[in-house]
Design a protein that fits this description.
The chain is an alpha/beta fold and about 230 residues long. The protein contains nine helices and nine strands. The strands form two sheets. It has a seven-stranded parallel β-sheet, with helices on both faces. The radius of gyration is 17 Å and the shape is globular. InterPro entries: NAD(P)-bd_dom_sf, SDR_fam.
């Protein structure tokens, strides 16, 4: 247990996830890092003070992992939900080829966000403070047929976050959405694209600084007013 507030980063990676972790750590938070495997955890933890890492897959039920974090740090004050909706080497098919099965699979990244809220929100409401930040894609606000079923799930997550934001008005608990349109620097997909320019082309002008996004996210959370921010490098 600790008197410091605690931030949970769900789906931590070398790009935006770690930028979020560094930002909240710099603001005086304990940070709990969660990703599917522990392989990269030692490198992540070497960058942070007052942090611990936990292996957990949001699609397989994240409640037990959140319980472990609560046992270690006490209450969870803010949760960042940013697991990758696609694998770096597995791109979606066009919307004209999207099947019901593909949409169902894409939606499997949305349901855990609701699970996280259901697990943490009652305590936040009781305390009158806390918050959630959800990372989604630009296809939530702009038609992008090439992203197929992923565009459907992105829109669903964005709508959930915005509706939750409105539903929490006046409670002291915040919910906001980060709409990402571009390659997040240092992230796995960015590294893949840069390393295969002959396949993906030049990424110049289409990248986003994860530290800048994390800075905006912190301002959104700490101010508690804006429902979303759009980062468009496309």
């Amino acid at each position: 247990m600790t008197t410091r507030p605690t931030a949970v980063v769900l789906g931590v990676g070398p790009g935006l996830g770690m930028s979020m972790a560094r930002r909240f750590a710099g603001e005086g938070y304990n940070v709990a890092l969660v990703s599917r495997t522990a392989e990269r955890h030692p490198a992540y933890l070497a960058e942070l003070d007052n942090a611990e890492a936990f292996a957990g897959d949001v699609r397989n039920g994240i409640g037990a992992t959140l319980d472990k974090i609560t046992e270690r740090f006490g209450v969870i004050d803010v949760a960042y939900y940013g697991p990758a909706a696609i694998e770096p080497d597995s791109m979606p098919t066009d919307i004209t080829d999207a099947t019901a099965e593909a949409v169902e699979k894409a939606m499997s990244w949305v349901y855990p966000a609701v699970e996280v809220v259901g697990k943490l929100l009652p305590g936040m409401l009781e305390r009158g403070s806390g918050g959630f930040l959800f990372a989604g894609g630009l296809s939530a606000v702009r038609p992008m047929p090439a992203l197929g079923a992923l565009a459907v799930s992105s829109a669903a997550l964005r709508n959930y976050a915005r509706t939750l934001h409105e539903g929490l008005a006046g409670t002291g608990v915040y919910a906001g959405s980060l709409i990402i349109g571009g390659l997040v620097e240092r992230g796995d997909i960015h590294r893949m694209v840069v390393s295969q320019r002959e396949k993906y082309g030049d990424a110049g002008g289409h990248t986003l600084d994860p530290d800048a996004i994390a800075g905006v996210a912190w301002k959104m959370f700490s101010a508690g007013d804006s429902a979303e921010s759009v980062f468009d490098a496309l």
